[in-house]
Amino acid sequence: GKVAFGLMANEQLASLQRDFAPHLELQPPTDRVGVQLRPRANPTNYSDRKAFDPTGVLSADEATGMAELEALEARGLELCSALYTYRSIARALPTAGGDDENKRAMYLTSFEVLHPHVQRVKELMYYKDDAVAKFCASLALCTGPGSDGLLLALSRVFDVVAVLDSIKDTKACLSNDLSVYKRAFAHCRADVTNADAIFNSNNALQLFLAEKGPLLSALKAAVHRLPGAEESICAMAHLCAEALEGGWCLLPAERHRMLRACACLVWLLDCPAGGGPNAFLSRKLRRDRLGRLFKVSPVVPLYGDMHANLPLILRRCPNFSPAAAAELLPHSRREMESLTGSYDVVAAAGSLRSLVVDYTMSLPALLRRADAVGGGRLG
């Protein structure tokens, strides 16, 4: 019976192939197929968060905060990409000339060309307000033992904010494009709808671009107005250190993010005298634990071809001094030279050069051996 059934199934399959094979021609995809290798931390967006018990491991409020933080992180990463790839538009625009009518037409055209690009920069300014509000609201929930997931989500958003600030501070073309945009807008304001709203947002954007590190500064000022901020910041730093020590990071990018977050969290904790806690004297911060991590990897990638210098981040703390930061930074000359060799390409230039010379000298012999066994012939 089984043999007969198998033969009948094979005959049916052969019949389907004869009938439909001529019509099933495989065509290459017309569009490029994109594959995202970054796993989603929360594919369901905590859709079942209403079922969480407030007294259990994860409360509904924490789940809601984690979902909002992940959406905020995704939005921030899009802004990082847009900001990093931004190039000056105003330099390609011609200078307005001719009679008044021609100048007005050229200014209007320049305004229309620059407007969508300036609006993208304004999104960064609006993101600051949303990031500060949601970060502080979620940080206020980190009071129980089950807040590790929320603390990790907060650390990811905090790192995105720090990366955005670093990229923004390196882009002088943002202010140049805004100046040309404001000049063009002043000459064609009567022809533009919502002129008053654009004028106000332009002034706000000019102040935003003139400030160094506006996102982190606003976040720090808001965080220290929260009760119990010192404990939450220290808990976040210790959790990142535990992830690094325990090998939780699957990819190098995740490890680098944790290291950047640890250094920036020390800066976030440290306040001027009388204005808040001193990160270098606080008994709630394990400086020896963080120092072991900083001394192994003092320089890590930031974004694209940019890098983050962790000792430089610590030196920006209001209460920094070499004596106070002895636990966090290398202090001997030999220790600093050994650390430099772990990340500085110039330090490895001699060994790399000798490897290139050895390979260049051995390449002709390898090609002759390949040709002798027929590897040099094609077809």
Q: What tags apply to this protein structure?
A:
single chain; 379 residues; mainly alpha; disordered N terminus
Task: Please outline what is shown here.
With 379 residues, the chain is mainly α.
Give a verbal description of the structure:
The chain is mainly α and 379 residues long. Helices cover 61% and strands 2% of the residues. The chain has 13 helices and 2 strands; from the N terminus they run ααααααααααββααα. The chain has helices at residues 2-20, 60-84, 100-139, 148-169, 173-187, 195-210, 214-223, 229-245, 252-269, 287-296, 310-315, 333-343, 349-372; strands spanning 299-301, 307-309. The chain has a two-stranded antiparallel ribbon. β1 and β2 form a beta hairpin. α2 (60-84) packs parallel to α4 and α4 (148-169) crosses α9. It is globular and about 70 Å long. The protein starts with a helix and ends in a 7-residue tail after the last helix. Mean pLDDT is 83; it is low at 2-7 and 20-29.
Low-confidence stretches: 2-7, 20-29
| Head-to-tail CA distance between termini | 51 Å
Order of helices and strands: HHHHHHHHHHEEHHH
Find the count of extended strands (DSSP E, 2+ residues): 2
If strands are numbered along the chain, what order do they take across the biggest sheet?
A: 1-2
Strand portion: under 5%
Rg, rounded, reads 29 Å
Mind sketching the topology for me?
Layout: H1 2-20, H2 60-84, H3 100-139, H4 148-169, H5 173-187, H6 195-210, H7 214-223, H8 229-245, H9 252-269, H10 287-296, E1 299-301, E2 307-309, H11 310-315, H12 333-343, H13 349-372
Antiparallel strand pairs: 1-2
Helix pairs in contact: 2-3, 2-4, 3-4, 3-5, 3-7, 4-8, 4-9, 5-6, 8-9
